[in-house]
């Protein structure tokens, strides 16, 4: 009788396909399609009186799959639970063991951080029992989120509007966005001036006034006028000092989940949700010409910047053969990195599984966005192992009529890692030595120069910027709110609930979002308190380390929360959300139309209701005009939810474009122009077929 094949259960068919390819017929590999058990959707599912005992049920639609997996498990003496290497994956493995009736001595947990033959076979040789501390950490989060969401959301339905939701992390994130908007609204710009001069050198030396009181050149209008009156064109300047220092700029660490989300947003224009979807595909495996299905990157949910020795060796081989040994780092290649408390040490940073698999070799195998994200991960990792850039930073101080002017210049002596990877401005936090012009003229102390030109420039202080998805992710991680693996669904929920709109990549709170934050702030202050939310997250991390029981965390939270809930249900009156007016007029009676909310989202209704019950679909104008018929161009969504832009006169006019129309008109033909984004480069293009005019967006 043939020996039964060991069964390996993973989470997704893509992962199963990749693993089956290199393990061959010696194993059966099946997919659980994620969780097979969870709390019931239609009931609370948590018995608070019994120590927050959760009641798990088989997820609807998974019964047949569970039966199939159970039958397969009965026919073998070894079952390997190969779910993701984190607490969520550990919980899925535990639920699988319970659902399939696999005894603990037969259910063996294996974990790997990249889907390669070596990693999987190594994991099989080091199978272990399920880690119940990890399971408890996931259970604590799941039950806590159910307690908050299931009990607080219905309160919002009754007091504000049906279909709303509140959550432990979601509500704190919303408060950050609302608070930032109010800070912007309260901001009052202040005028200031800078004074710049040009000296008659070759090349021309540009220097800025340097205020002695530490305002870095910011002066009042009166002060600027006084400087211009005292230092004039043709006056003599004396070189007060010339200081040149050799500096090194070190590469940033390879990506964590959070930094990947941020940089993909900044460089590629991807939403956090899009980034995680593409990264998951790269991790689970894609068809590569000549190789079959292969996992291209390591596990994508990580907060560690650690890199395996074998990956470092692969990077070294590539760098030395491609650029030369001088481009390989000697000793530590990176600036110091602060890792958040609770980082899981077994995890690695996100990196390519095979450094020799250059992005260019995948052009015929991956789609455009998959390749762009892979290239970003690959370049960031290889650059992180390279030598620093070496440059001379020069500061020249000029003195004239008692005033000091400064010029900064940078000359790169050795490109180092920048030959491969140019960091974005947001990543570069290494100080002002790198700012300034290129090479400065060769000057000596005491040398005299003439002022060729001098002028002042008016400026106004600016309010703090609205959050983008990238900057929101950054501050959430810095404050310890939630975990990077949850940021994509959090942002998506805020958008879906209409708490926030995305406008030109900025997250703008709606009146509804502000109303919900104010209500929570008044009656449930801890839910939106940033410090409290971060402290709860830290306690949940301690469950993982077996430093505190998961039921204790829930008990400490639930006591005050349940009291606030009972009090709020009695005290809160029905809250009205300000009506959102529009410039649309009712086609039936001529009165203004207003935005209303229904079970399927927003729509337009006549402000004369109930006398007039006219309604119509809500359209968002872009400011552009159809080049075919002259009607407004509006925002539309495809069946898959992707935004495109079409003529409002559809179906009479079928004009559509993927580029966002603008109010700007083409100087050649007068048609509307649209914004075309390609990476970080924005171009305005004419929408009229055959015109072809385009220009760089300002």
UniProtKB/TrEMBL annotation:
EC number(s) given by UniProt: 5.6.2.1
UniProt domain Topo IA-type catalytic: residue ranges: 131-565
CDD domains: TOP1Ac (cd00186), TOPRIM_TopoIA_TopoI (cd03363)
Site features described as Interaction with DNA, chain residue numbers: 35, 141-142, 145, 150, 157, 301, 497
Region described as Interaction with DNA: spans on this chain: 165-170
One Pfam family, short name: Topoisom_bac
UniProt keyword annotation of Aminoacyl-tRNA synthetase present: no
Keyword match Ribonucleoprotein: no
MF terms in GO: DNA binding; DNA topoisomerase type I (single strand cut, ATP-independent) activity; zinc ion binding
Organism domain of life: Bacteria
Positions annotated as active site in the UniProt record: 299 (o-(5'-phospho-dna)-tyrosine intermediate)
Domain Toprim: 5-115
Keywords recorded for this protein, A-Z: DNA-binding, Isomerase, Magnesium, Metal-binding, Topoisomerase, Zinc, Zinc-finger
GO cellular component assignments: chromosome
GO biological processes: DNA topological change
HAMAP family attached to this UniProt entry: Topoisom_1_prok (MF_00952)
PANTHER family: DNA TOPOISOMERASE (PTHR42785:SF1), DNA TOPOISOMERASE, TYPE IA, CORE (PTHR42785)
Family designation: Belongs to the type IA topoisomerase family.
Protein name: DNA topoisomerase 1
Organism per entry: Sulfobacillus acidophilus
Taxonomic classification: Bacteria, Bacillati, Bacillota, Clostridia, Eubacteriales
